[in-house]
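This part of the workshop introduces the protein records we will be handling. Getting from the letters to the C-alpha cells is the skill we practise here. The record below serves as our worked example for the rest of this section.

…
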Amino acid sequence: MSAFAEPVNKPSVATGEKLSPYLRAVLTIAAPSIAHHLGGGESLIKWLGAGYALAMGVLLVVGGRLGDRYGRRRMFLVGLAGFTLASLACGLAQDPTMLIAARIVQGGFGAMLIPQGIGILTTTIPREQQPQVFFAFGPVLGGSAILGRILAGFIINLNIAGLDWRPIFLINIILGSAGFVAALRVLPHDQRNRREAIDGLGAVLLGAAMLALLYGLIQGSTSDWSTGPIACLAAGVAFFVAFARRQRIAANPLILPSLLKNRGFTAGMLVGLFYFAAIAGLAYVVSLFLQTALHRTPGQAALGLSPLMVGIIIASFASRPAATILGRKLVFIGFALTVVGAAWMWTSVHVGGVSISQ
C-alpha cells in the first residue's frame, strides 16, 4: 500500500525537481559573468559547480533516509524552502566566498528535495505507468536545460536593473515559492518511520572524502600540483577507504554493500558516473570557450549550446522504442555517438582555433 493515501499533484512535485537541473544549466552560461563581476577567476568558476555537487553528493542518500524517517512531504517542503532561500542568498552574494557558501547550502537542501520528489512519484504512480513517466523525464529535463540556458543568456544580456547575473538566482524565489504553496496545499501527509536510523559517521567520512578529493583536484589544476593538493587527494582516498569499511560494519549503512555485488548495478553506476561527468564538463568547457575565446555574449553562448540539448531531447524520445529492440546495445551505441561527436568537436577546435567562428 502506498504511503500516500491520496493522489498527488505531479506538477507541484515536478516544479521542485526541475529547480536543481535549471540552475546547473544556467551556471554553464553565467559562470564567466559571475567571475568577472565578483572576482575569483578560474577557481570560482570551478567551485560554483563543485560546491553544489559536494553537498548534493554527500547528503543525497541521507536526504532519502530523512524522508523515510520524518515523512517525504515534510522533507520535500523543507528542501524546497531551503533551496529557495539559498537561491536568494546566491543572488545577494557580494563576494566569491558568500556565493560558494550559498551554493553549498543550496546543494544540501537540493539533496533533501530530490529524493522526496522521486519517492513521492514512485509510491503514487502505478507500477505499470512508471516507465512512461520516467522516460518522459529525459525530454523534460532536456527542455529545462535548453530554456534555462537561453533564459539565463538573455537575462544577463538585458542586465535588468543593473543586476547582471543575479536575476538567474532571484527568479527561483518566484518558482520556489509557487512550488512550495502548491505542494503545501496538494501533497497529502504520509507515514513516517521513526525507527529509520541514519549512519552519521558514514556520512561524515563520505563528506570528508569528497571534500578532500574535490579540493585537491580544483586547487591542483588551478595553481600547480604542489604538496598541498596531492596530500588532499591522498587524504580523500584514505577517507573513502574508511567509508567503505564503515559501510561493511554499520547496522544501517548509507549504501548497502550487497548492492555493489550486483554487476549490473555496479556497471550502471560506473557508466553513469563517467558519462554524466563528461557531458556536464563538456557543457562548461564549450560555454567558456564561446565566451572567453570567441568573445560571444551569454545569449549567443546559450544558443550555441542548444544543439547539444536538442540532441538529448530527440534521443530521449527515440531511446524507449529502441531499447525494446536493442537492449544493452543501445548504451554502447549512445557512448559511441557521444565519442564521435566529442572527437568531431575537438578536431574542429584544434584545427580552426578561435577562427572557427569565421
Residues 1-9 have pLDDT under 50 and may be disordered. The first helix runs from residue 10 to 38.
